[in-house]
Write a structure and sequence with these properties.
Blueprint: H1 3-19, E1 23-27, H2 33-40, E2 48-53, H3 57-64, H4 68-74, H5 79-91, E3 97-103, E4 118-125, E5 131-136, H6 141-162
Parallel strand pairs: 1-2, 1-3
Antiparallel strand pairs: 3-4, 4-5
Helix pairs in contact: 1-6
Length: about 170
């Protein structure tokens, strides 16, 4: 584990422990890398509940309840799909906050409208509407995936720091 990822995971863990939050993840293009970074952190069992790796569309539908219509209309790499992944993660876990990642890490699979490096993220609090955003990252497959992990964890950290503590 490199120092940057380890430090970021520790910061997320501290914010979650201080607020008694449990996190769950849904990952597609990162293939469980966020969950791996989190569980590399000693004590993560105090704040990490579970992770879903839903690489195939069928897994997104079966495990997270993503609508086939959403996939047909917007595609697997879209804010709409990321939002449904984040919501489905909470429905299928005991976590209070979730994050979801879906993207095109390459080297193939891109299109003019969604080039390689397009990654969509969503974060969701239990009983709240998910927040989503799309980013474009440069580099090879590994670089794109690593940037996606960092972005997802930074988004989780920002949100975990702003929520009131759970009683």
């Amino acid at each position: 584990m490199d120092a940057e990822l380890a430090e970021l995971s520790q910061a997320v863990g501290l914010a979650c422990r201080q607020r008694r939050l449990f996190v769950a993840t849904a990952e597609s293009c990162t293939g469980g890398w966020v969950a791996q970074v989190i569980t590399h952190t000693a004590g993560s069992s105090a704040w990490f509940e579970r992770g879903f790796v839903t690489y195939a569309n069928a897994a997104k539908v079966e495990m997270l309840g993503v609508s086939p219509r959403t996939l047909e209309t917007h595609g697997a790499v879209s804010p709409e799909t990321a939002k449904e992944m984040a919501t489905g993660t909470l429905k299928n876990s005991n976590a209070l906050i979730s994050l979801a990642i879906t993207g095109i890490a390459g080297p193939t699979g891109g299109s003019p409208g969604k080039p390689v490096g397009t990654v969509c993220f969503a974060w969701c609090w239990r009983d709240a509407e998910p927040e989503a955003e799309s980013c474009h990252f440069d580099g090879d497959r590994e670089a794109i995936r690593r940037q996606a992990v960092i972005h997802a964890l930074n988004g989780l950290l920002a949100r975990a720091r702003t929520v009131p503590s759970v009683p």
